[in-house]
């Protein structure tokens, strides 16, 4: 069976990886075109809506925006929930993940503090308790955790918390 889809993106994981995962996991055949250079991209950029990738060609229709592509595939392949409320919650969850992704980029690259930074720090701190080497391969998250851990106004509290061996949760699996 000839694939009806062609996924076009740069030769990286990036915004297309979630699309690849959905297609592969659901055994949906697709072709893929990976853009390997800036020169190659500059020659074809104007042929895409908004000049953006990823792009999913569904027969002859070009769809851009990763969320639009994911929803399109979900509708076409019965992966979008069984009723309107499930679809609404799927949308809500997906948008929340996208917001976290966008905010995560800011955590790592910007200097100002935001309330969400505290939540990220706490999640990373708990993960490090459960698996002390879990951030070894995640240099930016590890650096974020280290910087946040060094905040002068938190030093006393964090040291007191550590010395009191405050439990992570109530289930005893810390």
From TrEMBL:
GST N-terminal domain location: 3-81
Signal peptide: none
Coiled coil: none
Listed GO MF terms: glutathione transferase activity
GO process terms (BP): glutathione metabolic process
Xref: InterPro entries: Glutathione-S-Trfase_C_sf, Glutathione_S-Trfase, Glutathione_S-Trfase_N, GST_C, GST_superfamily, Thioredoxin-like_sf
Any one cellular-component term (Gene Ontology): cytosol
Designated name of the protein: GST N-terminal domain-containing protein
